[in-house]
Automatic annotation (TrEMBL):
<keyword id="KW-0686">Riboflavin biosynthesis</keyword>
<keyword id="KW-0808">Transferase</keyword>
<protein>
    <recommendedName>
        <fullName>6,7-dimethyl-8-ribityllumazine synthase</fullName>
        <ecNumber>2.5.1.78</ecNumber>
    </recommendedName>
</protein>
<dbReference type="GO" id="GO:0005737">
    <property type="term" value="C:cytoplasm"/>
</dbReference>
<feature type="region of interest" description="Disordered">
    <location>
        <begin position="1"/>
        <end position="24"/>
    </location>
</feature>
<comment type="pathway">
    <text>Cofactor biosynthesis; riboflavin biosynthesis; riboflavin from 2-hydroxy-3-oxobutyl phosphate and 5-amino-6-(D-ribitylamino)uracil: step 1/2.</text>
</comment>
<dbReference type="InterPro" id="IPR034964">
    <property type="entry name" value="LS"/>
</dbReference>
<comment type="function">
    <text>Catalyzes the formation of 6,7-dimethyl-8-ribityllumazine by condensation of 5-amino-6-(D-ribitylamino)uracil with 3,4-dihydroxy-2-butanone 4-phosphate. This is the penultimate step in the biosynthesis of riboflavin.</text>
</comment>
<dbReference type="InterPro" id="IPR002180">
    <property type="entry name" value="LS/RS"/>
</dbReference>
<dbReference type="Pfam" id="PF00885">
    <property type="entry name" value="DMRL_synthase"/>
</dbReference>
<comment type="similarity">
    <text>Belongs to the DMRL synthase family.</text>
</comment>
<dbReference type="InterPro" id="IPR036467">
    <property type="entry name" value="LS/RS_sf"/>
</dbReference>
<dbReference type="GO" id="GO:0000906">
    <property type="term" value="F:6,7-dimethyl-8-ribityllumazine synthase activity"/>
</dbReference>
<dbReference type="GO" id="GO:0009231">
    <property type="term" value="P:riboflavin biosynthetic process"/>
</dbReference>
<dbReference type="GO" id="GO:0009349">
    <property type="term" value="C:riboflavin synthase complex"/>
</dbReference>
Amino acid sequence: MATSALGQCNLLPRTKPTQLQSPRHPFSLSFHRQSLITSSSRALSIFTQPEGFGSVIDQKRCREEYQNRFQTCAVRELTGSVTSTQGHRFAIVVARFNDLITKKLLEGALRTFKSYNSEDVDVVWVPGCFEIGLAAQQLGKSRKYQGILCIGAVIRGDTSHYDAVVNATTSGVVSAGLNSGTPCIFGVLTCDTLEQAFDRAGGKWGNKGAEAALTAIEMASLFLEPLE
């Protein structure tokens, strides 16, 4: 006896070959009636395989019947917009360390806010990237701003100090957003060389400060309505 997805199958010896069966294959297949039960949290579908050799389940009919039991509910899509910043107020937390880079990132961000008619922006300077998270969190908790943009630049050196600062800065910005409920946008460059930083602060790879500002505008728009 063999078992398949369609039921139990017995191999029955045949003593005499027929015209429809070659003597080289002295076995015939006989399917026993068996129910296949498929269940889920919402429906129970029962399909039955009929008796007789060569019977085939109408796959299309069964598939349609099964799918009809799982109708998809209406999906509500929410997305931010960059077409209007009316009523939005933003804050930019900027690290003074590596200010040759961070000033260029700040300039790109301010240009972006201005181009989208959002000039109600406060700039807050902190000593370095390590201090960005705390400042962003306090600004977010004040409920005065719809978005906080965090700008900094960390350049790899000869020691492991780079990794410590990058990890702390990243965690700080994430925690600031989660704890305050205000979107805190990560606009910190983490580069191996000074050249890479300049390339991303208005160089051949654009200005990441400007890109981060655009993200802040979109997230502020998304949070205008409660995400419930």
